[in-house]
Design a protein that fits this description.
32% strand; 105 residues; 27% helix; single chain; 5-stranded antiparallel beta sheet; alpha+beta; Mlu1-box Binding Protein, DNA-binding Domain
Length: 105
């Protein structure tokens, strides 16, 4: 499975492909930090973004920020992003029964 999350960030130099468990995540680099759009991951997994964001905002281990990113349509959006170091823990908390069946195959 490959999580293609769409174009993020106004500057192509800030776009990075992150190898994650054998898959690629399109992410945004900000200095030494790499940020992944929670919306894009949720869309790829077929799960509800609002619920996931609320849960993440209340977890002490989750490092999240609001960033202005460019969507696939070329428009800028304020998007909740998770630091790449927090992604494995987040994914471990997602109930696999809530993930879209086609993603689990």
């Amino acid at each position: 499975m490959s999580l293609t999350l769409g174009f993020m960030g106004g500057d192509m130099a800030n776009i990075v492909l992150v190898n994650f468990a054998g898959d690629e995540l399109v992410a945004s680099r900000d200095g030494d930090d790499v940020w992944v759009s929670v919306r894009r991951v949720c869309e790829a997994l077929g799960i509800d973004r609002k619920n996931q964001q609320e849960k993440l905002e209340n977890k002490s281990w989750a490092v999240g920020v609001l960033k202005t990113l460019t969507g696939p349509d070329g428009k800028n959006y304020e998007t909740f992003c998770l630091h790449i170091d927090s992604v494995p823990m987040w994914l471990a908390t997602i109930d696999e029964n809530r993930v879209a069946p086609e993603v689990c195959q």
